[in-house]
Give the backbone structure.
Amino acid sequence: MREVLALAGGPRAALAVVLGALTVLSGAALLATSGALITGAAQRPSTLLVLMPLITGVRLFGVARAALRYAERLVTHDVSLRVVARVRGRLLERLTPLAPAALTGARGGELLSRVRTDVDELQGVVARLLVPAGVAVLAGGAAVGLTALVSPATAGVLAVLLLVLGVAVPAAAARAGRRAAVAAALADADVAADTLDLVRGLPDHLSGDGGATALRALDEALLRQEEAERARARLTAVTTACREGVPGLGLVAALWLVGADVAAGTTGPLLLAACALGVLGAFEAVGGLGAAWSAAGGVRAAAERVRALGALRPAVTDPEAPRPLPAGSGLRLEGVGLRYPGAAEAAVAGLDLAVPDGAKVALTGRSGAGKSSVLALALRARDPDTGRVTLGGTDLRDLALDGVRSRLAWSAQAPQVLGGTLAGNLRLGRHDAPDEELTAVLADVGLAGLLADPGLHGWLGEAGERLSAGERARVSLARALLSRADVLLLDEPTAHLDTALSARVLDRLARDPRTVLLVTHDTAALDARWRVVDLDAPHR
Amino acid sequence: MARGPAARLLSLPAPRRLAVVCGVLGLLTWALLVVQWALVAAFVTAVVEDGRTPGTLAGLLAGVLAAWGARAAVAGVRDRAAARTSARVRRTLRATLLRRLPVLGPAAVAGERAGELVTTVTEGVGRLDGVVGRLLPGAVTAAVVPPLVAATVLVLDPAAGALLLLTGPLVLLFLWLTGTLAARASRAQWETLARLGAALVDTLRVLPTLVAYGRARGSARWLADVSEAHRRSTLRLLRTAFLNGFVLEFGAVLCTALVAVTVGVRLFEGELTLQRALLVLLLTPEFFAPLRALGADRHAGLEGAPAAERVFALLDAPAPHRGTRPAPAGVPHVELRGVTLRYGERAALDGVHLDLPPLSRTALVGPSGAGKSSLVRLLLGFAVPDEGSVLVGGVRLAEIDPDSWRARVAYVPERPWLLPGSVADNVRLGRPGAPDADVEEALARAGLLDVVRRLPEGVRTPLGEDAARLSGGERVRLALARAFVRDAALLVLDEPTGQLDEATEAAVLAALDELAAGRTVVTVTHRTAPLALHDRVVVIEDGAVVDGGVRGAAVPR
């Protein structure tokens, strides 16, 4: 929770709380002064002037309430948007040292989707949690204090009822609703997963049984979802009845207690209606707490997960005293072994591989033979458990990370294209590359067709979705070709290409003066310029 | 308040019943409000003017509590009815939407639209809760309670009643005027968050590449700039949008203040009794309370309106024509005659002739984007030619019932989609209700039975989300088992070995060879190994057949 406060706290959040509390208090004051005004007028004072302060009070509180509410909403939204930016920044800051190792593969995808939900959850922290909680404490406390000036007993009742409505009822509802909430979340997830299954696998379902199996499963999931929502509806009904009913108890208590004082002559008659209506108005202080209570659990869990990211140990770290970057760019793996955390078998074991300056090496082997792992080791996305990886004769672990990566260009197996323009994506490889070079490198990889549509500066769609898988792979390859790196590390650059294109791309790579280490399963397309290393072969 | 899709949603039978229920409950609420406040006014008057002690007035207070409790219960009942109706409406809509998908076919749900469709069915329909569960009961209550309260005040004190009848419509008018602003703001705010979310996810997704190229710090700055720019523009909009709430609040409190002051002054002049004046004062906020609640509910309704639009657009999407004739028995002659298929302006296939005699084995080759996959779509009946026709046993495929035709076709895509259910469920997709023995035999013939037996629960092992525990080759072989278990006349294979290494490819091809016996086979491939299985190779380029190949001539077997 401290994490959340650190993100959202500050003078602006405090201002929102103060404005919110004043809004509630002026509402209660409006009701109280109106009550006093009516009772006062019924006493027929000698002149209307006696009632002037009350009349002014009624008008003042009325206008103040509307203005305060307006200001509070603006400030709350301002703070919310600032928090969004801060949460995002914090997240990127924490994930950067963990990438690329933590963000690739299936577990990377899982992490990304979780992070997105967590960020959405944290966005609501100000409006849904902090401001309502602050307002409840501030306005509720002030209302109890003011009531105590008139009738301490009534103030006691008010305090108890505020606690009941603001704390006990939501807590009990959250407790009772926990099972329904879990059931609803599970049912929602089932419906989403089954819908995705039907949509993504529609050709398979249609050519299978016309979708009957999938629809049957979905009907069951939908019924479970409705049942879970009905369980929640029962709870909602009870909470609503409490929210509407409890203030009535406060009003009756105030009428009884203050009424006794008025009858006894210890309290002025003006204060009976004023106090009763003021008490009624004070319950608005805890109005937002019901939602805050249900938001608290989710926000806390999300904040905890985001915080935990910071505690994850990065797969690789900068050395304390980095050695200067070597002149040569030959890569060597010497007796290298790598086992992923939690994996039963080593991904790479006792591997020796030399990729001299300017060499063209192709890694092959069955799926799971460790081809991509070799690239990860060369990029220093991970460190080997045994042996060492050297660049120009120096162990990668002795070099600054930024330095190593400035010498290497990498194209991932799942091509990474940013939503944006073609030029923007290519310039990730070299930020100052002129348009002519971008055009030339696109032609090299057979993407000259993209220059007409969408063009260098046209929108590629979210995550580059306007490009086909093969085009995305080649954009990623073109980015690597464009970079100033001495070594190109390419993971399946020809996977989505037909034979002619794949031959053309491989020829372009073979003619490149730089060192190339690529992963492929299509050895037939490689000519004599390539040295093929089969990771399955026992001798290696 | 609601127009277009939201109005259409509310005219469904269940929401209409809910409206009636809410109307009746609104009537009850009004009656209980009048009783409750009349008793409070009587109590205050008795204490202040008659000097009585609360002890002698316990009956009045008990009445207040009873009326108040009953009103709270009515509110609870209303919320429950709304939530239940909303849940039922959403389930029915989801089920109806999902049944539309197979009817609309894969063309309607392909590619980028897949994600949008899933969102419409899950989150989109979920947002309709704002319309059915909140806007509808809120609007009905706001339509019933305030007029009744105003009428009551009018009877009690015509001057105060007139004030309510004057300010009420004025507030509503202002609400309507500023309502468009609020709608714009809510849309803008939502878009801002969505865009920021997309920017963040996009950045995180490519973070490995950004880090590898040393760009992570730059993108953090970029993301901060984007967030700041969006914050400024959103706030500018909200400043006007929140005027909506301001007007409502201002109108309500100003009217309460006006009523208090005028009633107070007339009370001072002796034109009114305290009890009546108090009742008027107490009823005045109740005139505005439902309107204020509606302000918040309307916001929820506004969020639901675009969702309702998407939902109904999907429901109204015209279904492609469905044939009714049964698929011919046996292994029919399949023929493409002058087929042209367009996606928008671009012709994916342009006047293609292709003859697929019974038991022939045809390989389709050609560069990426030449139209091979379009041809597969036509054969499966997922697409209908714009010109020319696909003939099955001499009958146009468009006239044949698609379900009956697909039951005769086995389709193995490059990356088969696997159900999250068990291995057996996945095989049975080929023939629902197939006995266990047939499932095992199909697995055995696909060369997968040994692998499956090693799984913890054999054929009953759940595969989980996207079958993470199977390799690419095993996925294809599971799809082959699916094909084995069904009695297919036509076997359509789309890059069956595209993602496999050579050893796995050989095993899959051996299984394919067995599967092909007694059926017509069409295979799309860009690899050389599968060609040996076929008796002719057809080359497609730019949507046209370039080399038709002669039976048995193109590739020596």
Residues 550-557 of chain B have pLDDT under 50 and may be disordered. The first helix of chain B runs from residue 5 to 10. The CA atoms of residues 174 and 247 of chain B lie 7 Å apart.
